[in-house]
UniProtKB/TrEMBL annotation:
Transmembrane segment boundaries: none
Classification of source organism: Bacteria, Bacillati, Actinomycetota, Actinomycetes, Kitasatosporales
Enzyme Commission code(s) on record: 3.-.-.-
Pfam families reported for this sequence: Isochorismatase
Domain of life: Bacteria
Keyword check for Nucleus: no
Protein name: Isochorismatase family cysteine hydrolase
Length: 183
Protein backbone atom coordinates (compact mmCIF):
# COMPACT_ATOMS: atom_id res chain seq x y z
CA UNK A 1 0.00 0.00 0.00
CA UNK A 2 1.28 3.46 -0.91
CA UNK A 3 1.72 5.94 1.89
CA UNK A 4 0.09 9.34 1.50
CA UNK A 5 1.69 12.55 2.78
CA UNK A 6 0.31 16.07 3.02
CA UNK A 7 2.73 18.76 1.80
CA UNK A 8 2.02 22.20 3.26
CA UNK A 9 4.09 24.58 1.18
CA UNK A 10 5.24 28.18 1.58
CA UNK A 11 2.77 29.06 4.34
CA UNK A 12 5.30 31.46 5.76
CA UNK A 13 4.30 34.72 7.45
CA UNK A 14 5.58 36.92 4.62
CA UNK A 15 3.61 34.95 2.03
CA UNK A 16 0.41 34.29 4.00
CA UNK A 17 0.20 38.02 4.77
CA UNK A 18 -0.45 38.65 1.06
CA UNK A 19 -3.49 36.32 0.94
CA UNK A 20 -6.71 38.35 0.99
CA UNK A 21 -8.88 35.34 1.96
CA UNK A 22 -9.26 35.28 5.78
CA UNK A 23 -10.49 31.67 5.57
CA UNK A 24 -7.31 30.36 3.97
CA UNK A 25 -5.29 29.61 7.11
CA UNK A 26 -8.21 28.02 9.02
CA UNK A 27 -8.99 25.75 6.04
CA UNK A 28 -5.40 24.56 5.72
CA UNK A 29 -5.22 24.11 9.51
CA UNK A 30 -8.29 21.84 9.25
CA UNK A 31 -6.53 19.76 6.58
CA UNK A 32 -3.45 19.47 8.80
CA UNK A 33 -5.55 18.40 11.82
CA UNK A 34 -7.42 15.82 9.74
CA UNK A 35 -4.19 14.42 8.29
CA UNK A 36 -2.65 14.08 11.74
CA UNK A 37 -5.79 12.42 13.12
CA UNK A 38 -5.75 9.91 10.24
CA UNK A 39 -2.04 9.16 10.63
CA UNK A 40 -1.14 10.88 7.34
CA UNK A 41 2.35 12.37 7.62
CA UNK A 42 2.48 16.16 7.32
CA UNK A 43 5.61 17.70 5.80
CA UNK A 44 6.24 21.41 5.54
CA UNK A 45 8.14 23.08 2.73
CA UNK A 46 9.57 26.59 3.07
CA UNK A 47 11.60 28.89 0.90
CA UNK A 48 14.85 29.82 2.57
CA UNK A 49 18.23 31.34 1.83
CA UNK A 50 21.47 31.99 3.66
CA UNK A 51 22.37 35.51 4.78
CA UNK A 52 23.44 37.50 1.75
CA UNK A 53 21.44 35.22 -0.59
CA UNK A 54 24.44 33.44 -2.15
CA UNK A 55 22.03 30.90 -3.71
CA UNK A 56 20.30 33.56 -5.80
CA UNK A 57 21.63 34.31 -9.25
CA UNK A 58 21.07 37.86 -10.50
CA UNK A 59 19.61 36.16 -13.60
CA UNK A 60 16.78 34.69 -11.51
CA UNK A 61 13.89 37.08 -12.12
CA UNK A 62 11.79 35.77 -9.22
CA UNK A 63 14.31 35.56 -6.43
CA UNK A 64 16.73 38.20 -7.70
CA UNK A 65 14.14 40.84 -6.83
CA UNK A 66 14.01 39.88 -3.13
CA UNK A 67 15.29 42.49 -0.69
CA UNK A 68 18.38 41.70 1.36
CA UNK A 69 17.54 39.50 4.32
CA UNK A 70 14.26 38.18 2.91
CA UNK A 71 13.63 34.53 3.77
CA UNK A 72 16.86 34.19 5.72
CA UNK A 73 17.09 32.67 9.22
CA UNK A 74 16.56 36.04 10.98
CA UNK A 75 13.57 37.12 8.87
CA UNK A 76 10.23 36.91 10.76
CA UNK A 77 8.51 36.65 7.37
CA UNK A 78 10.29 33.34 6.79
CA UNK A 79 8.63 31.65 9.78
CA UNK A 80 5.72 29.28 9.22
CA UNK A 81 2.42 30.92 10.16
CA UNK A 82 1.80 30.10 13.84
CA UNK A 83 -1.67 28.65 13.18
CA UNK A 84 -0.06 26.12 10.84
CA UNK A 85 3.10 25.42 12.83
CA UNK A 86 4.58 21.95 12.61
CA UNK A 87 4.57 19.63 15.57
CA UNK A 88 7.84 18.19 16.88
CA UNK A 89 8.99 15.48 14.50
CA UNK A 90 7.18 16.87 11.47
CA UNK A 91 9.84 17.64 8.87
CA UNK A 92 10.38 21.15 7.57
CA UNK A 93 12.10 21.05 4.19
CA UNK A 94 13.92 24.15 2.97
CA UNK A 95 13.93 24.67 -0.76
CA UNK A 96 16.00 27.16 -2.74
CA UNK A 97 13.75 27.57 -5.75
CA UNK A 98 10.05 27.47 -6.63
CA UNK A 99 9.57 23.69 -6.68
CA UNK A 100 9.56 21.91 -3.33
CA UNK A 101 12.08 19.46 -4.79
CA UNK A 102 14.69 21.90 -6.10
CA UNK A 103 17.56 22.45 -3.72
CA UNK A 104 15.97 20.32 -0.98
CA UNK A 105 16.03 16.80 0.41
CA UNK A 106 12.27 16.33 -0.05
CA UNK A 107 12.51 13.37 -2.41
CA UNK A 108 14.86 11.55 -0.03
CA UNK A 109 12.45 12.07 2.88
CA UNK A 110 9.46 10.90 0.84
CA UNK A 111 11.17 7.81 -0.59
CA UNK A 112 12.57 6.79 2.82
CA UNK A 113 9.02 6.88 4.22
CA UNK A 114 7.53 4.94 1.32
CA UNK A 115 5.39 7.87 0.22
CA UNK A 116 3.91 7.46 -3.24
CA UNK A 117 0.93 9.82 -2.99
CA UNK A 118 1.30 13.54 -2.34
CA UNK A 119 -1.52 15.85 -1.29
CA UNK A 120 -0.56 19.44 -2.09
CA UNK A 121 -1.57 22.68 -0.39
CA UNK A 122 0.29 25.95 -0.53
CA UNK A 123 0.96 29.43 -1.80
CA UNK A 124 1.00 30.20 -4.62
CA UNK A 125 -0.96 28.06 -7.02
CA UNK A 126 1.10 29.38 -9.95
CA UNK A 127 4.35 29.03 -7.98
CA UNK A 128 5.19 26.24 -5.57
CA UNK A 129 2.04 24.21 -6.27
CA UNK A 130 2.47 24.21 -10.05
CA UNK A 131 6.22 23.59 -9.98
CA UNK A 132 5.99 20.87 -7.35
CA UNK A 133 3.09 19.16 -9.11
CA UNK A 134 4.96 19.05 -12.41
CA UNK A 135 8.16 17.72 -10.87
CA UNK A 136 6.30 15.21 -8.66
CA UNK A 137 4.40 13.91 -11.68
CA UNK A 138 7.69 13.40 -13.51
CA UNK A 139 8.92 11.49 -10.44
CA UNK A 140 5.83 9.22 -10.67
CA UNK A 141 4.06 10.33 -7.52
CA UNK A 142 0.28 10.03 -7.39
CA UNK A 143 -1.05 13.55 -6.79
CA UNK A 144 -3.98 15.30 -5.18
CA UNK A 145 -4.34 19.07 -5.06
CA UNK A 146 -6.49 20.68 -2.37
CA UNK A 147 -8.05 23.45 -4.45
CA UNK A 148 -9.09 25.59 -1.48
CA UNK A 149 -5.76 24.87 0.19
CA UNK A 150 -4.06 26.84 -2.58
CA UNK A 151 -4.16 30.52 -3.37
CA UNK A 152 -2.76 32.93 -5.91
CA UNK A 153 -2.54 36.67 -6.43
CA UNK A 154 -4.14 36.14 -9.85
CA UNK A 155 -7.62 34.58 -9.39
CA UNK A 156 -8.00 33.78 -13.09
CA UNK A 157 -4.65 32.00 -13.26
CA UNK A 158 -5.59 30.09 -10.08
CA UNK A 159 -8.88 29.02 -11.72
CA UNK A 160 -7.26 27.95 -14.99
CA UNK A 161 -4.61 25.89 -13.21
CA UNK A 162 -7.14 24.14 -10.97
CA UNK A 163 -9.73 23.53 -13.68
CA UNK A 164 -7.66 22.91 -16.80
CA UNK A 165 -3.99 22.21 -16.05
CA UNK A 166 -3.79 20.30 -12.78
CA UNK A 167 -6.49 17.70 -13.60
CA UNK A 168 -4.19 16.33 -16.32
CA UNK A 169 -1.76 15.13 -13.64
CA UNK A 170 -3.65 15.18 -10.35
CA UNK A 171 -6.96 14.74 -8.66
CA UNK A 172 -8.26 18.18 -7.71
CA UNK A 173 -10.57 18.27 -4.71
CA UNK A 174 -11.54 20.39 -1.73
CA UNK A 175 -10.20 20.16 1.80
CA UNK A 176 -13.65 19.12 3.03
CA UNK A 177 -13.94 16.29 0.49
CA UNK A 178 -10.38 15.10 1.13
CA UNK A 179 -10.74 15.11 4.91
CA UNK A 180 -14.07 13.24 4.62
CA UNK A 181 -12.30 10.57 2.53
CA UNK A 182 -9.81 9.94 5.34
CA UNK A 183 -12.56 8.24 7.35
Amino acid sequence: MTTTALLVMDVQNGIVARVPDPGYVPRVAAAVRAARAAGVPVLYVVIGFRAGHPEISPRNKTFGALPDGAYTPGDPGAAIHPDLAPRPGEPVVTKRRVSAFTGSDLEVLLRSRGVGHLVLAGLATSGVVLSTLRQAADLDFRLTVLADGCGDADPELHRVLLEKVFPRQAEVTTIEAWTASLG
